[in-house]
Amino acid sequence: MMMMRPSLAAFLLHLTIIAISHAIYLDIHVPLPNDDCLMTQTLRANELLRSYSSNQNYDSEQVDLFSRHVPHITLFLADFDLELDDSNASESLSQLNVTKVDSFLAAISTINFTQVIQGLDCTVSLSTQSFIVEHNDDSNNNDKFYTINGAFTMLNVQNTPCLKALSSAILDPVESFVKRPIIVPSWAASLPEPERSAAIYRSRKYGSPNVKEGFLPHLTVGFDDPSRGSAASATYHHSSHADMNSETSMQWREDAMGQWNKGFALLMNDGCSSMVKGIAVGRNSIGGTVLANSRMRYWKVGNDLFLPHEHEAQAVII
Ligand SMILES: *[C@@H]1O[C@H](CO)[C@@H](O)[C@H](O)[C@H]1NC(C)=O
Ligand SMILES: *[C@@H]1O[C@H](CO)[C@@H](O)[C@H](O)[C@H]1NC(C)=O
Ligand SMILES: *[C@@H]1O[C@H](CO)[C@@H](O)[C@H](O)[C@H]1NC(C)=O
């Protein structure tokens, strides 16, 4: 019997809600550097999922890290109040208010990320410590560097003091931009205490339960909405997290990721990690993805690299 940690249930349902809403969500994230082993392996996982997916009756893989989406580790994702005031009735037509976005980006620019990570090791590596814990088995000796749950396939990123510090540093500066009133998701009420109170508190205060102790860094490489291919799963979006586990286990994903994992495990001897080199803001899309070409700003992070004004790109509003 596989059990999910309450925080994972919260995390997955939060992403699901985002995936089906039309509001504009901005994702503050660590983009993977283009030229290293971890990027290659992240692309490889997505390539395998896309390839296995296209061999099914329906081509369900919606993440495309080759052209449509950016490989990234989300630090903070929320519904910010940045849209035009006179947004039309149709939410999908919402557009960003450039003035609001500029002050939002300026608020993030007040953070000295280099100072935030001073003394911390900002290596990004993968871990076999899954989001999922095996019930009645504390040995946790699984050798998978990935987690498949619900519609999501994710690489397990090692949760480090560096990533935690970066995520937490963003919360206060952007707090006033979170759209209010914040709707606390109903699933929060079904979490056991003390997670329940903590998740509700984080949602109310920050606009997302997936921060602080709810922060679960990962690289999303697949999002396969079963309702696209199977009528049996049509109620997926409304199902509980228990159903997400049982109804949506598509074996081809395990096959694809099993193949990926074998290759990745071989590389581990020589190390296959990356470094946090910067923080970016971009637009969130289906399955927790960040749209390619949606980047609004980028801040370099690290000693000798922090040149706060020279590297600011103009905000691009799409
Ligand atoms: C954009 O935001 C600014 C600052 O909040 C506000 O004064 C302005 O009316 C907004 N413009 C539109 C078109 O929503
Ligand atoms: C809303 O959209 C409709 C149809 O596109 C348009 O006719 C109308 O003028 C819009 N209203 C506003 C306030 O922009
Ligand atoms: C950011 O912090 C670093 C390390 O403390 C410091 O050297 C640098 O001057 C700071 N940058 C700014 C713009 O304050």
From TrEMBL:
Residues 1-23 form the signal peptide. It comes from the Eukaryota. Keywords: Signal. This is Uncharacterized protein.
